[in-house]
Amino acid sequence: MPFVLGAVLSLVCFWIRQGAQETRSAEQRQGPRPGLSEALRRHPRESVLIGGITAGGTIAYCMWTSYLPT
């Protein structure tokens, strides 16, 4: 039963996605997408913040699953 429900939901989601409008304009789609180096250069504070949040969550998970059970 769960697989049938998942198959039906995937079809519904596919139908919704086909009807969704594109959020980028035609001019934006034509040009190249900025890379990682461009994002780091334009948004250094936000990049460090995302890295810190990711590292904090990873450290907390590793401590919870490996150190605390001992």
TrEMBL record:
It comes from the Bacteria. This is Uncharacterized protein. It comes from Streptomyces qaidamensis.
